[in-house]
Amino acid sequence: LNGRYLSRRIQDLARLKEALSENDFAPALKLGHQVKGNAQTFEFPHMASLGVELEHAARRQDKETLLSLVQKMESVITGEHLFQS
Questions:
Q1: How far is CA 5 from CA 27, 77, 80, 83, in A?
Q2: Contacts of 59 (CB under 8 A, 6+ apart)
Q3: How far apart are CA 57 and CA 76, in angstroms?
Q4: Which of 32, 47, 68, 77 is most solvent-facing, going by the fewest CB within 10 Å?
């Protein structure tokens, strides 16, 4: 279940990068809010805090910070996948 959650977030981040390339910040706001709310449920509290940061950066339309946060989230997810195996 947790592995599936992480796989979905990887897909979300790929879509988010595409949206940001077109300066579309709505998906970042939605994903940040979603991760903020559900990461705790799946026992990823560090992801929840990144979700909060993502949501705040999306509200500011801060593309540079959003791209940095995407990289951080990808690193966290990759690390989590190693522990899930």
A1: 18, 10, 11, 14
A2: 29
A3: 18
A4: 68
